[in-house]
Input
Amino acid sequence: MLAIIAAAVLYGTGCGLIELCSMYAQRQTHPFFFEGDLFAGVKGATGGEKYLGYMTDRDINIDKIAMRFTQAQFALAPVILDFNNSNHRLLILDFQDLKQAVALAQKLQLKLLKRSPQGLLFAERPGS
Output
């Protein structure tokens, strides 16, 4: 009986190792990309803020865009992103067209604090 249990455990472990090795090999050819990593540079600059405005010209009804926003929320937790609400002291401007982001920043009289290599802008509303 003990031999049967030992064989079952070894078989199960072997199958698990094969599955893990297969997943590892697949990750080497198709690495995972976490959209939230784009927002990592913002995390340290949020200070004690509980909410950030998240302004974008992207269509949130498209799954990939919704995923980007959701993963940004996870990356910046416990800070809460308030979608397309500019009534916060700190804002993330995630625009496809950088000219539109700059125009919005000028309209709202924002002070640009950071720009990521991916084109994200992190801005502050002075006096808020």
The chain has a mean pLDDT of 81.
